[in-house]
Structure formats: structure tokens, C-alpha cells
Design brief:
The chain is mainly alpha-helical and 147 residues long. The chain contains five helices and no strands.
Length: 147
């Protein structure tokens, strides 16, 4: 990618990370009898996204020359950006499992077209696995399934 695109992308991802943290603060912090609340994962993801965007920005500044052969893939970028925004907006109404499954499925298909079965299996396993570990084993709470 080009340095210019990397700098702009890092700033946009930084803003998305901040958006994740701000919106996740609107989710109830803890449930009755739970030490871990449903806001922990989105906050963690937001912090991780902020840290990675800062790393990308620093690497873009350190880079000496532009790569001339590749053009930025804005279409893929904006699809993933829209999916991230929809993830935050739909997390509470649709629940963690469905929203995470759809976000991962979209992300996998944007990054590597085809392989639907593999994408569905991995997205479902991750969504249900994290939900089970967090809610079942750690006794936390995440937004459940829609009623």
C-alpha cells in the first residue's frame, strides 16, 4: 500500500477504535452477580484497534518510498468499515453471537472470496465458543439472542 493510504487508514481505524470504546460504554457494565460485563470485549477490541492503528501510522511515517504498482482497495476498506460500524450498532439488538458471526463472515469474505463453508464454520465456532467461554465458564454476560 501507499504511505498516504496507510496514514489515512490508520487515522480512520483509530477513530473506529474510539467509536467501539465509546459505544461499548453504553452497554451495561456488569450484570447482577457477574464480575465481567458485556462491555469488556468491545472495549478490548477498541483498545487493540487503537494500538494497531498507531503502529500502522508509525510504520507509514518510517517508510521511505511509495509502492507504485498497487492502488488502494477502497471498496474492501469501506465494506469492512461499514461492517464494523454495523457491528457496534447491532450488538445490543441482535445479540453477541449473531452480530459477531455476521461481522466475521463479512470480514472473511471481503478478505478472501469463496470458501463459504470454511468461513461459516470458523465464524460460528468463534462466535459460539467465545460466548460459551465468557457466559458459561466465566459467568459473565453478553447480549443474548433477540427475543
Amino acid at each position: 500500500m501507499s504511505r498516504t493510504f496507510d496514514r489515512y487508514a490508520s487515522i480512520i481505524f483509530l477513530l473506529i477504535g474510539v467509536f467501539f470504546i465509546v459505544e461499548s460504554r453504553k452497554i451495561a457494565a456488569t450484570s447482577y452477580g457477574s464480575n465481567v460485563g458485556p462491555d469488556i470485549f468491545p472495549i478490548g477490541l477498541g483498545i487493540l484497534l487503537i494500538l494497531l492503528s498507531i503502529k500502522l501510522f508509525i510504520e507509514a511515517l518510517k517508510s521511505k518510498q511509495e509502492t507504485g504498482g498497487e492502488k488502494p482497495d477502497y471498496k474492501r476498506f469501506f465494506i469492512i468499515f461499514a461492517a464494523a460500524v454495523l457491528y457496534v450498532v447491532l450488538l445490543e439488538p441482535l445479540g453477541y453471537v449473531i452480530t459477531t458471526f455476521l461481522f466475521l463472515l463479512i470480514g472473511f469474505q471481503v478478505l478472501e472470496r469463496g470458501g463459504w463453508l470454511k468461513s461459516i464454520v470458523i465464524a460460528a465456532a468463534f462466535s459460539f465458543g467465545v460466548y460459551y467461554i465468557f457466559v458459561g465458564l466465566l459467568q459473565g454476560s453478553l447480549p443474548g439472542f433477540p427475543v
